[in-house]
TrEMBL record:
Family membership noted in the UniProt record: Belongs to the DprA/Smf family.
InterPro entries: DprA, DrpA_SLOG
Domain Smf/DprA SLOG: 6-215
GO biological process: DNA-mediated transformation
Name of protein: DNA protecting protein DprA
Length: 286
């Protein structure tokens, strides 16, 4: 993987990072970073994610991705990597902020996801550390600060009372950024941290629309920024759909692909707001 350096004299750094107190003067990255990534949402939570947490990710994060927002997280077990995999599956973007150098992906079990982020063209790996530098106990709170700094707001999905997500939440508050928290069961220790953040003033949310409203984001504006990866199957499908409507049968014939391959792609395009499916016809709405 080709590793580049984002320096303080670079345009993206000057525009989005130079005024942040405590920000490192250089960041290492591989993949691609877009201007819109700095409008993304940092999604964090428990490494011991429950089925409830997984359902919350599917419900809320899918809507964020569908609206064109980049998902920023730490590639950790549980909530982090699940949210990032979902973003990739839906054709969205994700930025993985590492607590080690880019050549020292941790945990190793998430190496394939890291590689997929880069090779898909759907995001980047970013680190404040030299490429071959290993993680330490101190590097993860620093990583959490960087996640908050790179994002527009933080969303917490499941966190115990002593969860490491507290570092990200604290950083976001200190940086003047909004913190959104999904509540959980009073009988689950994975909700104790979430409920504490809410008591301390974080925004309680149960759906993506509440996030959009709090940030004064119009989904139509976000959708206008969506770009399909050049040469991807999604782009190929999208280009074969007319504004006047296209039958599924005609679409599969023009693509020379079976419906079983085309249908999941149509679902993703509809979630992104690029098409509308009405009975037996598919419409290009952008």
């Amino acid at each position: 993987m080709q590793i580049r350096i984002l320096k303080k004299e670079d345009g993206l750094y000057r525009k989005h990072l130079q005024d942040i107190k405590g920000m490192t003067e250089r960041l290492y990255y591989t993949g691609n970073i877009l201007e819109s990534d700095f409008e993304g949402i940092c999604v964090v939570g428990s490494r011991r994610m429950s089925k409830y947490g997984e359902n919350c990710i599917e419900s809320i994060v899918s809507e964020l991705v569908g609206a064109g927002l980049t998902i920023i997280s730490g590639l950790a077990f549980g909530v982090d990597v699940t949210a990032q995999k979902l973003a990739l599956d839906l054709g969205g973007r994700t930025i993985a902020v590492l607590g080690s150098g880019i050549n020292k992906i941790r945990p190793l079990s998430n190496f394939d996801t890291a590689r997929r982020i880069v090779e898909s063209g759907q995001g980047a790996l970013i680190s404040a550390y030299e490429p071959d530098e290993d993680s330490t106990k101190a590097s993860f709170p620093e990583r959490d600060f960087l996640m908050a700094a790179l994002s527009r707001a933080v969303l917490v999905i499941e966190a115990s009372e002593k969860s490491g997500t507290s570092h990200t939440v604290k950083a976001a508050v200190n940086l003047g950024k909004e913190v959104f928290v999904v509540p959980g069961s009073i009988f689950s220790d994975l909700s104790a941290g979430c409920h504490k953040y809410i008591r301390d003033g974080a925004n309680l949310v149960t759906c993506a629309d509440e996030i959009f409203e709090a940030l004064r984001i119009k989904k139509s504006v976000l959708k206008s920024k969506i770009r399909l990866t050049e040469g991807s199957f999604e782009e190929k499908v999208y280009k074969n759909i007319s504004s006047g409507g296209t039958l599924l049968e005609d679409l599969t014939l023009s693509l020379n692909e079976p419906a079983v391959k085309v249908l999941p792609c149509l679902t993703i395009l509809e979630m992104k707001g690029l098409i509308k499916i009405d009975r037996d016809k598919i419409f290009n709405v952008k």
